[in-house]
Amino acid sequence: MGKGMFAFVRILVVGLILVGLLRLFAANPPPGSPGSKAPTPAGPASDAATKSQSKPRSGSAPMSASSSGGPSMSPGITLRSVSAGGVTLPYAVFVPPGLDVSAPVPLVVFLHGRGESGTDGLRQCSQGLIPAALAEPARWPAVITAPQKPTFDAAWSDLEPAVLAMIREVRASANIDADRIVLTGLSQGGHGTWFIGSRNADLFAAIAPICGFHTGANAEGLARLPIWAFHGLRDDVIPAERSSEMIQLVEGGRIKRPSNAPAPVLTLLPEAAHNSWDHAYRASSLAEWLLSARKGQSPSAPMRDGLK
């Protein structure tokens, strides 16, 4: 396939995904639109340390507290934004159809790559975890939240305060199991997963960096976390050696892992280039592994890499 045709097909696929997302929004109309129900008013979540403030983005239906004080979540995607550390991040919250929120549920935090940067609040839903969860929602029985960084060159390591403020907001408005919060991301988001996960090891039950790299990660924090990393051996954007270096750092004896910490795992995909995320999120058992993780325990689901 020629480069021009490949680019056309990629644009077409992204367009079809966006159309599907817009249909989800149409099924859950914004307040004040014809056929919509007025939501229960909910004040913005705030935190004295970060002075974060959230508000529903235009064209989205907010998650709001029910009259009984519990969470009220509708299936589909909600767009919100959070401000902290001098930055405002739009983010999406995906609730799969049929998710039972009467009991606490896991929270999956997804960090996107360079190409999905922007301020529209939606582009980060076109690549990686959200399309995989939309295609197979039964495999992802969790609340998934995906922030969007504003520019191509913005680093997730600089946006850590806003990411943490987003997590606090989602926990405040949804029935989240505090012991089952996990972090994953691809490319630049893989770097963010290594960095933010390592600095907040007490928050996350497990991390899954995909085709990522590291700068400034806290090695002692990583040693306490279950880690399953993925990388394509034909990756010409971020060499697979970047993931190998991180695994070697954690298990190579330079830092001491707690006795109950599982050994980190790196799955190298022989035929994959930069896109190793489709395999990770769709073909492997990463979904089951992440959602079986609990703080202080090794994930109970087996690790099946999906390779023949």
Provide an overview of this structure.
With about 300 residues, the protein is of the alpha/beta class. The protein has eight helices and eleven strands. Strands 1-4-5-7-6-8-9 form a seven-stranded mixed beta sheet, sandwiched between helices. The longest helix has 25 residues.
Low-confidence segments, ≥5 residues, pLDDT <50?
A: 5-9, 22-72
Number of strands: 11
* Global shape: globular
What series of H and E elements makes up the topology? HEEEEEEHEHEHEHEHEHH
| Number of separate helices | 8
Main sheet record: 7 strands, mixed
Mean pLDDT: 81
Q: From the helix content, strand content and strand pairing, which structural class follows?
A: alpha/beta
Strand coverage percent: 15-25%
Q: How helical, in percent, are the residues? A: 25-40%
Radius of gyration: 19 Å
Write the layout of secondary structure elements.
Blueprint: H1 3-27, E1 53-56, E2 64-65, E3 71-72, E4 76-84, E5 87-95, E6 105-111, H2 129-135, E7 143-147, H3 160-173, E8 176-186, H4 188-199, E9 206-210, H5 219-222, E10 228-232, H6 241-251, E11 265-269, H7 277-283, H8 286-291
Parallel strand pairs: 6-7, 6-8, 8-9, 10-11
Antiparallel strand pairs: 1-4, 2-3, 4-5, 5-7
Describe, in short, the structure shown:
The chain is an alpha/beta fold and about 300 residues long.
List keywords for this structure.
single chain, 308 residues, alpha/beta, two-stranded antiparallel ribbon, 8 helices
